[in-house]
Amino acid sequence: MEAGLRYVTLVLIAFWDLFLGIRARQANGRKLRTKYPLSKTIVYGLVFYIPLILLVLELLGLKLLPLPDSRFIQIAGFFFVLLGFVLRFVSMITLARGLGIPNQKRNRLVKEGIYNLVRHPIYTSLIMIYTGAFLVAQSYLFIAMFVLLATQLYFRSKNEERFLTSLFKGEYIKYKKRTKMFIPLLF
Question: How many other CB atoms are found less than 10 A from the CB of residue 112?
């Protein structure tokens, strides 16, 4: 059963990332984007993709830094993965409903639904999914993954917030004051 949860987690992540890759290509050119310098893009890529490769290896059974075997940790990790997928799906639906097809002519700050609780629920979901997946793989690498991913997404969020503040001005500043960044009521 231990290997079963690892493989199901791997398939879920691969399917979801494939789905998002297809959706990103379909939306290419119609979406507002924050521009990053090449150096930041490379750093963001390394910080994200190296741990992702390690995650795939761990889920396939290569034990680099194994946790003591614990069915509870593995099931808790799988719960985080599932909860992260639900949060990401709800966030994407809320964002799509709020914006329609995002483009320069139809800018609107989405503040309803899950965005009423946190400003960056998609990033929160990523942290949950990938940290949970390392727990499913039962690897101490989940600590490094959590720290790296959370740090990267924090700085990316700050960059996006500068962009959104310039776009929506006072409306975004008010939204920022009343809504937490990643965790409702805490942070």
Answer: 9
DSSP string, 4-25: HHHHHHHHHHHHHHHHHHHHHH
Q: How many CB atoms lie within 10 A of CB 54?
A: 19
* Position 108, amino acid: R
Which tokens go with 107? 């800018």
Question: Residue 180 pairs with which residues in a beta bridge?
Answer: 118
Task: Indicate the pTM of the whole model.
Answer: 0.79
Q: What is the mean pLDDT of the chain?
A: 81
**Residues 6 or more apart whose Cβ sits within 8 Å of residue 90:** 113, 114, 121
Whole-angstrom Cα distance, residue 160 to residue 164?
Answer: 6
- CATH top-level class for 2-26+37-178? mainly alpha
- Position 16 scores a pLDDT of 75
Tell me the residue ranges of DSSP E strands in 11-154. none
